[in-house]
Amino acid sequence: MSFSDLRFIIASDVLLACLFPLAILFLGYKHVPSFSFSELKDLLLLGRRKTRQYGHFSLERAHESYAQYARLAEQELSLMRKSYSTLGRANKNIGYRIGYPRKLDRLKDVTDLNATIPDGIAELALEEFPSLKTKDPVAAGSADLGRVRESLKHFVRDWSEEGAAERTRIFAPILDLLRGVEAQERGGLRVLVPGCGLGRLAWEISQLANELSFFMTLSLRFLLSPKTTTVPNEHILRPYAHWFSHQRTNGSLFRGISFPDDVPRLSSTFRLVEEDFMKLKPSSSNAQGEDRTYLSGYDYVVTLFFIDTSLDVLSTISHIHTLLRPGGTWINLGPLLWTGGAQAKVELSLEEVLQAAEEIGFVIDRSKEGLMAQRTVECEYTGDRNAMMRWIYKAEFWVARKSK
Ligand SMILES: C[S@@+](CC[C@H](N)C(=O)[O-])C[C@H]1O[C@@H](n2cnc3c(N)ncnc32)[C@H](O)[C@@H]1O
């Protein structure tokens, strides 16, 4: 190579193009302690990077997130260690004497133990959805540790003895009402529970559960499959370990909670539809037997902490109305926490929601007393009962009928 060739290369964009990814790699390495292969690939593909092809709640993204749980949690812990290491000498000594480094070591151990659950969920998903074996992790989008943790907390809310008090408060008004239906009639009831989360309420009612997010359904599948769950309380999760706030003791922070207190299985009376509730069809009047999704209309639609997760609550209420048979009943219990993810089309007060329901064609039960009475139910949502704080919802319970 001649001197002028060399001078050309040094002065040209070619060198810059080669050095740029290396510089980013170097800077990235300084700030993020470890890279996965897919992240490295991502960095080196600068400019030609594929974009995420799957939705936030898709099977692919949920699977990728469960599969990456251990690595992401480990990364978080590295940041905590790094932060501790920046303490001055005197404060580091205090930290040492109160056992803070040991607490971080304990978090490492607990994270490894916790990882067995998401790893198991990811493995089962691979078996149940073989298409995942060929998924491109870049196209699945970045793994979402927060959503994995939120779903894991639902094991406690829905399927642990620890969560029984939280559940009882919100399930009781709904189950008491359904128990009030004549025994002969009860067996034939068609009940839809949209946005069922990990499905406990639908299981208690023994009917059709519907859920859009694969973060939830992959966890539910982990309970439903005899390959991963066979007996009550066979799994242990330390669901609060990663959040050091509001804890009285480290014992409480790292405590394990066993689940499931009951082992659910799908059956002709407990079915799961993994799709957008808005796409569920009103049933045709003469369909019989197995395919209950498409029967002539549900006798009940039960929404628990659901309607406010919609970006278009008016369409959601209209769709509940469409799915019910004439004379069918909508039971709702939940808050009005208009979703933070994106701008909702409307953000209504309770008064407005009820007025809108009437506009759509519902008759709200206005009894002052009894099982149907509209009332406020104070309750929690995946609360830690030992924590130094409580988030109390004043959720609203109402019963509305579609006119005959
Ligand atoms: C706040 S969570 C409540 C879960 C459960 N009902 C409970 O109380 O534990 C709302 C759930 O609704 C689901 N969801 C939201 N929009 C949905 C839709 N269009 N179709 C089906 N599920 C949906 C979410 O994925 C989420 O799991």
UniProtKB/TrEMBL annotation:
InterPro entries: CARME, SAM-dependent_MTases_sf. Coiled coil: none annotated. Keywords: Membrane, Transmembrane, Transmembrane helix. SMART domains: N2227. GO terms for molecular function: S-adenosylmethionine-dependent methyltransferase activity. The chain crosses the membrane at residues 6-29. It holds the Pfam family CARME. The keyword Nucleotide-binding does not apply. The keyword Ion transport does not apply. It comes from the Eukaryota. This is N2227-domain-containing protein. It comes from Agrocybe chaxingu.
